[in-house]
Amino acid sequence: MVNNKFYWFQSAIDKETCQKIINLGLSQLNNLKLEGKSIQGLAGNSNLKSTNLIPKNDLTTQQLKNKNLSEKDVYIRDSQICWLDYDWLYELIQSYMFKANELAGWNFDLDFSEVPQFTVYENSGFYSWHNDSDGDWNSIYKSYIHGVSEEKLSKNGDLPPIFTRNKNLIGKVRKLSFTLNLTEPENYEGGNLLFDVGEHSENKIIQCNEIKDQGSLVVFPSFIKHCVTPVTKGTRYSLVNWMCGRPFK
Questions:
Q1: Of 25, 28, 33, 249, which is most buried with the most CB atoms under 10 A?
Q2: CA angle 28, 34, 36 (to 5 degrees)
Q3: How many whole angstroms separate alpha carbon 69 and alpha carbon 134?
Q4: Is 215 within a domain?
Q5: How far lies 197's CA from each of 200, 207, 212, in Å?
Q6: Tally of domains in the chain
Q7: Has residue 180 been placed in a domain?
């Protein structure tokens, strides 16, 4: 395990840049809606929001059991997302990813960045406990070959989890995750980023208050469990990203 579970930079990105990212994200979301495409955030094989499921919110697995609920009874994500493929965004994000990788002492081997994801949480939107990758060979991105791969595309055409058409991602795993808070703290309530930093699952939970201010960001190993609690008022905008490399040995 790593000694530093996450590394933050407070008010690192200026307000004008944050607003620029928000405007780009909202414009892209609107375009996707007009094209009839899905903007619902996906969460691997986990259940998505539906009328017969209840939100898992920030409940742990043990808390679900205490409520006599199973993973089949809940959905774990309620957010809107789109992808922002701009060179200047990669440069902005990677400068902090590489800096955190060094200053936190992780020194992970990194060689590729995924497309930045713009995320909107509103109306009780949340993302329950999860990690972005286990970092081992079971988490590597695989090539998706239509008609050959056994896994099926989703109804909206999205690839199954850990499949990709990007040749630069094949055989690699997410190693570092990045979250940038784009929203003024007075414009929303809830939407807190939590980390489970215990040696065992659900052992020690820390709220990352360091990124409440607009333009603040946090970088953390992708295998660290985390969640975003429900937004109870207003709207929370964020930008997330992942840097990848060969699986940990």
A1: 25
A2: 105
A3: 25
A4: yes
A5: 8, 10, 19
A6: 1
A7: yes
At 154, the pLDDT band (50, 70, 90 cuts) reads low
Question: Is the pTM for the entire model greater than 0.90?
Answer: yes
Looking at the chain, the whole-number percentage of residues with pLDDT higher than 90 is 65
Phi first, then psi, for residue 168 (nearest 5°) are -75, -15
Query: How far is Cα 32 from Cα 156, in angstroms, rounded to an integer?
Result: 12
Kindly report the CATH number assigned to the domain that includes residue 24: 2.60.120.620
Q: Which residues are CB-contacts of 1 (< 8 A; sequence separation ≥ 6)?
A: 199
Listed in sequence order, the DSSP H helices in the chain are: 15-34, 61-66, 87-103
What digits encode the pLDDT tens for the residues 160-176?
778 888 899 999 999 99
Is 1 part of a structural domain of the chain?
Answer: no
Q: Do the domain assignments include residue 216?
A: yes
Helix (H, G, I), strand (E, B) or coil at 54: strand
Q: What is the mean pLDDT of residues 173-201?
A: 91
CA distance 200 to 211: 25
Domain that holds residue 68: 7-245
Residue 139 makes CB contacts below 8 A (sequence gap 6+) with 133, 162, 173, 174, 247
Tell me the average pLDDT of the chain: 90
The residue written with tokens 């309530």 in the block is 189
